[in-house]
Write a structure and sequence with these properties.
226 residues; alpha+beta; three-stranded mixed beta sheet
């Protein structure tokens, strides 16, 4: 795998999950076309906008001393680890790429990550997950996930306002089976057979290189500058 050509010096920040979500809120309020890609610097559990603070995964995270943050988008709980890549796309509501079907338009709005993986020779697609009981968003069956060879390597969700759409997602670098069992009750067998991280898919390529590649792919896909 050669991967995409190298670009200029990286502009990808390392941020906490809380700061990433704060920046997403700012971009959504501005309601201008934007791409936002970052590497996470801190572990956290995020919960969807409609999940209660008393969700089991949130209670387990707090008991373990792990920060819990709330997304403005839908879905269930997610484990976020340092070096995971998070990405966002903001489009004005009048942009035809938003469409009335935005809540199910994973293939259209998630075309950037597919382009990114294809640049490394990896075929992927947005499709229903191999679901499992519990609160883990990438196995909830509530929406499509980004799948490579049948395993989920990422997911996404949306927040529509009167002015703009936020479509954001995560692609974990490493799948931590121990944490997923501790926080979400997932067995090692379920984790191994249904989830995969970028480090495995792309043979350990460094996270910053991959974040740069995803940023470029999103900007090319949505014609949002170099």
């Amino acid at each position: 795998m050669n991967g995409p050509p190298a670009g200029p010096a990286s502009r990808i920040p390392a941020v906490t999950p809380e700061d990433f979500l704060r920046r997403d809120a700012e971009l959504l309020a501005a309601a201008r076309p934007a791409v936002h890609v970052a590497l996470l610097s801190q572990a956290a559990v995020s919960i969807g906008v409609s999940q209660p603070d008393t969700a089991e995964c949130a209670q387990r995270a707090r008991a373990a001393g792990i920060p819990v943050v709330r997304r403005s988008t839908g879905g269930l709980g997610l484990w976020h680890a340092p070096q995971d890549i998070v990405w966002s796309l903001v489009l004005p509501r009048t942009d035809p790429r938003v469409g009335r079907d935005f809540a199910r338009a994973y293939g259209r709005l998630g075309a950037g990550p597919v382009r990114f993986l294809r640049g490394y020779g990896i075929e992927s697609k947005w499709a229903a997950p191999a679901s499992a009981p519990g609160e883990y968003c990438l196995l909830s069956g509530a929406g499509d996930v980004l799948r490579v060879a049948g395993r989920a390597v990422g997911g996404a969700s949306q927040h529509l306002t009167g002015m703009a759409l936020l479509h954001h997602g995560v692609v974990p670098y490493v799948v931590d089976a121990g944490r997923l069992e501790e926080l979400f009750g997932l067995s090692a067998e379920v984790t191994r057979s249904r989830l995969v991280g970028l480090a495995e898919v792309l043979a350990g390529r460094p996270p910053l290189e991959l974040a740069d590649g995803l940023d470029r792919a999103l900007r090319v896909e949505f014609d949002l500058g170099p």
